[in-house]
Amino acid sequence: MRHKSRLVKVIRLHLANQSTYIVIPLVVVGATFALSMALYGVLLLGLQDEAPRELYGLGGFQFVPFYYGVTVGIQAMMYTYPFAMAMSLTRREYINGTTGLAALFAGGLATMYAVGRALEEVTDGFGIGFHYFGLAGWFAEFGWWQQWLFLTGLCLMLFMGGFCCTTVFKRGGAMRLVIELTAWTMGLVGLIALVTWQEWWPTVGEWFLALTPALAGGWMLVCAGLLALGSYWSIRKAVP
Question: Is residue 240 assigned to a domain?
Fold first, then answer.
């Protein structure tokens, strides 16, 4: 019980700045929604009856709020870590509480899109065939819960990516961050070279084609968990 209360204390510490987790995401969603609808309206006006009604989001604007998760992850570490240490919270408690907050943030944003998707389906795209919350193509072939899992995994992975990079920065400064990012990039290039050398690209392509939104979301959740572990490893010697 005491451990749980301390995790809640970490979450409350983050939520002291509610604009980062509530106000700004809502503003970003509203702004991208309004921009997408305005562009769709211009398209309808220009093409009239010939306008294709299967357009969604107009350029992927609906993903912008989830990319904002990187910024939230960076701010989470920069703004609250010194206060957490001053409150005698352990680094493990801080990581666990921050990961829990990230999951709530990602799940809440994905839930907003799930509700919006249902509203779009009931109203036939708000009466004009416009779709923003219900993602197109690959996602449209699956149920709402698969879209929810994909978006939750995406946002959580991006959040923890920003958070993990900031823990590295707090531990060793900009030079250490650049070195580690370069090392990871070189490792990725080496992996691509190995796949090319062994001629594994057809197998890799088949694996990607077999992915569903739920499976992709699951893999991103695994990546988020690894980033959380990496954050804990980095934060052990990070200076508040």
Answer: no
